[in-house]
Amino acid sequence: MRLTSKCNIPACRWTTVILLLILSHAVMSLSRVAFEKLTELDYRGSTYYTVKNLSLYECQGWCREEPDCQAAAFSFVVNPLTPVQETLCQLQNETSANNPTAVPQRSVNLYYMVKMQIRSDNVCLRPWAFERVPNKMIRGLDNALIYTSTKEACLAACLNEHRFTCRSLEYNYVTLQCHLSDSDRRTTGQYIQFVDAPGVDYFENLCLKANQACKGNRPFQIPRIGVNEDKVSQYASLHYYVDKELQVTSEAACRLACEIENEFLCRSFLYQGAPIGNSYNCQLFHLDHKTLPDGPSTYLNAERPLIDNGERVGNYYENFCEKTVTNPHENLPLVFENTEDPSINNLTRNDINCDKTGTCYDVSVNCKDTRIAVQVRTNKPFNGRIYALGRSETCNIDVQNSDLFRLDLTMSGQDCNTQSVTGVYTNTVVLQHHSVVMTKADKIYKVKCTYDMSSKNITFGMMPIRDPEMISITSAPEAPPPRIRIVDSRGREVETVRIGDKLTFRIEIPDDTPYGIFARSCVAMAKDSKSTFQIIDDEGCPVDPSIFPSFTPDGNALQSIYEAFRFTESYGVIFQCNVKYCLGPCQPAVCEWGHESVESWGRRKRSVASNHSSDETEDDMTLSQEILVLDFGDDKNSQFLRSEASSSDFGKDKTVTIVEPCPTKTSVLALGVTCALLVLIYISTIFCYYVKKWLSPRKSLA
Question: What is the model's pTM?
Answer without folding.
Answer: 0.46
